[in-house]
Description:
The complex is a heterotrimer.
Chain A: E1 17-21, H1 23-33, E2 38-40, H2 48-59, E3 66-68, H3 73-85, E4 90-94, H4 96-111, E5 117-122, H5 136-139, E6 147-150, H6 154-169, E7 177-182, E8 191-195, H7 198-204, E9 223-224, H8 233-262, E10 269-272, E11 279-283, H9 287-300, E12 305-310, E13 312-314, H10 318-325, E14 330-335, H11 347-358, E15 365-369, H12 379-395, E16 403-404
Parallel strand pairs in A: 2-3, 2-4, 4-5, 5-7, 6-7, 11-12, 11-14, 14-15, 15-16
Antiparallel strand pairs in A: 1-8, 6-13, 10-12
Helix pairs in contact in A: 1-2, 1-6, 3-4, 6-8, 9-12, 10-11
Chain B: H1 30-42, E1 46-50, H2 54-59, E2 71-73, H3 79-95, E3 106-112, H4 114-118, H5 121-130, E4 134-140, H6 180-185, E5 191-195, H7 200-212, E6 217-222, H8 236-245, E7 252-255, E8 258-261, H9 272-275, H10 286-307
Parallel strand pairs in B: 1-2, 1-3, 3-4, 4-6, 5-6
Antiparallel strand pairs in B: 5-7, 7-8
Chain C: E1 41-45, H1 55-59, E2 65-68, E3 72-73, E4 79-80, E5 83-86, H2 96-100, E6 106-110
Antiparallel strand pairs in C: 1-6, 2-5, 3-4
Amino acid sequence: MAARAEVVRERPPRGQERVSATGNYAAAYAARDADVDVVAVYPITPQVQIAEKLAEMIANGELDAEMIHVESEHSAMSAVIAAAATGARAFTATSSQGLELMHEMLWIAAGLRQPVVMAVATRALSAPINIWNDYTDVMSARDTGWIIIFSENVQEVYDNVVQAFRIAEHPDVLLPVMVALDGYILSHTVEPMYRIPQDEVLSYAPKRPRGYRPVLDPDRPVTMGVLAAPNWYYEIKRQQAEALRESKKVVREAGREFGKRFGRYYDLLEPFMLDDAEYVMVSMGATASLVKAAVKRLRREGVKVGAVKVRVYRPFPADELAEMLQHAKAVGVLDRAIAFGGPTEGPLFADVAVSLATRGVHVPMVSFVHGLGGRDIFVRDVVEMFRILADYARKGRSATTTIFFGVRE
Amino acid sequence: MALTRPVRTVWDIPREERFAPGHAMCQGCGAAIIMRHLMKVVGKDAIIVMATGCVEVTTTLFPRTSWLNPWLHLAFENAGAAASGVEAALKVLRRKGVIDGSRRVKVVAIAGDGGSFDIGLQSLSGMLERGHDVMFVVYDNEAYMNTGIQRSSATPYGAWTTTTPVGKRWRGEWRPKKDIIGIALAHRIPYVATANPAYPTDMVEKFRRAFEIEGPSLVHVLSPCTPGWRIPTEKTIEVARLAVQTGVWVLLEVVNGRPRVTVKVPRRKHVRHYLRLQGRFRHLTDEEIERIQKMVDQYVEEINRWVGEQAIGPVAE
Amino acid sequence: MEQLRYSRVPELRGWRDVPIAGIVPWPGSTAENRMHAWRTFRPVIDPEKCVRCRLCWVYCPDGAIVELDKPYTTRSGRTYKVTYEVNYDYCKGCGICANECPVKAIRMVPEVR
């Protein structure tokens, strides 16, 4: 179900090496090409190949970095935050329970404005324990203040990690960036991809002079990680909220510049056959390629459907999404996670619904959940979802509860 | 500049104050005395990494700081991991020529007993085991004082705390203090020591050695807490001194596995002198105090056997 | 009082003035705080009795005992190179100095307000 090498559809980019890689290897290659200084990774399925590949590259001398063999993900995140605070380019990766164990530190990474980059091979959360793909792990990190970018295929994993360093370290941003890749579906699937020469990566995502941001330096001492009482805490947080909100500009610019230099353009959202689409399905990650396949099938039958892929999940591109969907007759959202007890249980749906409602786009909406814990989603399932969506459009109302698709009744 | 000359008398302690006054640590705080001297020893070229705790919250209330050194606090349980991250970054940035490769900048991690014995133990163990060039200082006030005197695994037998209260069924803490020195030594690190602010030259000299040595070192410092131990604010040093004079706290230094008692106590005082000064032990009966005396006797015997001499003598009144 | 590189904090009005992430670039700035309100007793050092053993300076938790290169000759004719003074801006009145003074040269005097 993973994307066929669609992004590679464009002309072979000059100077770029065509390699075959899993999503995990792609993340590791990108970290190497960005010449990361410190890597702290704790092994967890399905991310573990990232740790292995990075270790192999350091062992071979392909990458000059310090690897900290941390004893937990909590320590992994703590160590990369501290390394970034010392002025190093720092990288880590995790999945599922590991991301949950890091959770406390995710807030601190963002709160201290440290430009850490992390790849997350998405995976379901316990209990019951399950090592397969869904987005519940990343969804539980959505409010932590990170920039969150989803990848649709292996090429995007590589490209997103490269862009992540440019975005995170941009002086107007200084926020951590999480690049999500679907567990197994991308993490373990081998696809062809283009690797950019390291000097070009470093010219695109340059290592800035030490001291362009506050770092731990005996010649210019700073106190980092202070106590803020009610008289200043709110101001510090207000500033952080502004930084994440405004980072959208830098994220867009990074995608455009990436396209100019390397031939693959990226934006916050990716519309698919949207021009005259009446029924639109919003999704993220590798799931989006499945939705695209369903759209194509229905289009062949003459049904006017389209899709939007949310590439940048945080900061959420609300204005852009509302603009894209203003002419739709009905909007469905396919979530690969459950937000338990919410007004509807699809977390992405909630974001889409608020974006549309607050921006005056009032169309019937349906929240779908599918693909939990690695449950396969088939193109026919998405086709069926479009049919349900059309029903609601005819009725002229939204579904008030989430539809759990693909579950045995 | 870090202190390089050996410290033999109090006059060898640098006058320069590198820990600014105006902090909000309690009247008579033992940790404040420890911090002052620690910062005098490490000098400018040290990066401080601190766990959440009393010292952290009382010295960094935004927008002010008591620290003159680069200083980082992330959370409670991860001083070891954060220090590892800083140290690894310094190493690679030196190697890549981003920072001066010839200049020695050392990482000093500081945590209370909670941040090292309890919630910080895993991250501390990782740091020690991986051999990072980090000096780890434990200021041990024997309970969670920052949150208001709750029991930790460093709380000694018999001590009242708000979570080991004295009632009909409980009579304070009923388990002995965890052996953090034993745990540190199990990592085969090059330098481990205990210290006590009532013995400033001994303490400062140990800070100096722990800072100078390459690789992980750990200094475990007794840090009397006036509100938590229920002692008058002027008794901090007196109580700390009695801990050594009674054999409750033995001043040790273990270099590459070789142990030595640095301050010998030929004639010990009875433990009641130490206990009776502190409100947290007020409930103890004579019988209970004798039980504690036996525990101290046993500890002293173990130490003497370990160091191979009678470094701590018998109780003599 | 020997003033080291203690920084002063500029006026901060709103969230735009706050340094990024609240990272404080003003080392030693707590020295701007005044702690005298914590005190109920103040230590008073008698320079006549004081034997310049340095212990009050060593044991002070607040860096409030200041060691000055100020020669002092006692009435009995003994000359010392240093003098100890209390910085009452920082002294919280814990009394450790008086308790530890081996010659009882420090008295704790009630604060009268």
